[in-house]
Amino acid sequence: MARGSAMTMSPVDRVAHLNRWRHRPLPEKSLLTFGMLGLAISLPPFPAAVLVGAAMTMAALVGARVPVRVWLGCALAPAGFMLTGAMALVVQFDGHGFSLSPAGLAAAGGLIARSLAGLACLLFLALTTPATDLMAGLRRLGVPAEIVEIALLMYRFIFLIAGEAMAMDAAQAARLGHATHWRRLRSLGLLLASLLPRAFDRARRLETGLAARGWEGEMRVLRDPPALSYPVLALVVAAELLTAAAGIWLS
Amino acid sequence: MTILEADAVSYAFPGGIAALSELSLTIRRGRRLAILGPNGAGKTTLLLHLNGTLRPHSGRVLLNGTPAGYSRARLTAWRRRVGLVLQDADDQLFAASVFEDVSFGPLNLGLDAPQARERVNAALAALRIGGLADRPTHMLSGGEKKRVAIAGALAMRPDVLLLDEPSAGLDHAACADLLSVLRDLSAGGTTLVFTTHDVDLAYSLADEVALFNGGRVIVHGPAESVLADGEALAAAHLHPPLLLELGLKARAFGWLAAGEPLPRKPRDMLDLLDSVGGRGPARG
Fold this sequence. Notes:
heterodimer, A: mainly alpha, two-stranded antiparallel ribbon, disordered N terminus, B: alpha/beta, Rossmann fold, 2 domains, 6-stranded mixed sheet, globular
């Protein structure tokens, strides 16, 4: 009945819930994330972006104790994408053929440094803060309740539907549904076709369950965000000023 | 005193398949009633009528002797008194954390934050899951999810708690824990109504059993007499619980005095056998 909740829970979600800074208030973490992101974008990339990237990676790995393996797992795909994307800047076409472009090389270096710094910033936020906290934060920023509630329900359902899909997939495999490529494709089609009505059934039952608890269209729950710590906020601002100063001084 | 009553309720699914046919059932305050029947017999459909989710095609449901209404205000009042716990707890938990999820019902009752908080803490304590308050709802075991779902219903302080297959999907230990929690709730005055196809569960928890088959209640009475009625049970593709049969045998052999209650837990039965065995063979 646990429907494989542990099985389908993504490592990102698990780390977001279990890291050391899980209960730090969202404003502290977002001030750090977006402040540093702003520095990486606005200052000359060398060395500011490098400093930001290093600082935010350390914040995630050392400060919040995010496991290196999870961090790398999340960083590799987007980093690879950025590197291949930057290749387009390095190579120039001058009518006779392709050649390396010195100007492009510098631009690509800056671009890569900035994007990796941005990646480190966003990874820090994503790996230290559960998605539901982020949604509650959006609500406080004035995003309409309906949108936030739908996002919350979608997030909750991802795990349930993924669990059902995995169970069905295992059941298909057990009955040789994956024996050939053709059959695997056919099995996938069957799986998707039966997932949709299941999702609808579940939505209907959820509605029954919510109605039984007096739901009248608004999902209000008691939630007290942890108290903001002004010393920590001051520390965050100080770290950002220091990075900015070093970034300008050393460039 | 009757708290909830179904009076000749009929209901058919959209395909035209009859789920309930002129079903009548009275639920008395403070009792632990098992609605016992084979799978797919429509037990869930019956529960959904008892909290107003489904509306009978004919017949009526009475709440404290008054026919229930289906207007928004009447439904709200109804659900304030009658709580429902679905079979799959995943259908009921939606919020980010256990505490938030349990607070949903009390806030819907219009309570303010301090009152709601007090209700949530009391419900978590009653289910013995105070330590899970901050846990995200998708990081719970099946037994924990079930308890959180029950806490969510309990936090609204209903008079009647309807539970659909409460033991479904729970392992033995989780099930035993759940039973002891439910006994506590019952001792605290909450009327319990639960569906099950498990005669042993019915015998260990219920004081009344309504045997459900073919869309109606065919027998309703004290657990010990309904569960001993082999013929009626066989009609519903069920059989008497072994523990009850052993207890009746023990009584027939004179191992139990006429007024003494039958053992309701395996442990009690074993103790009885031990005490008899100590006296040497008792052939009667």
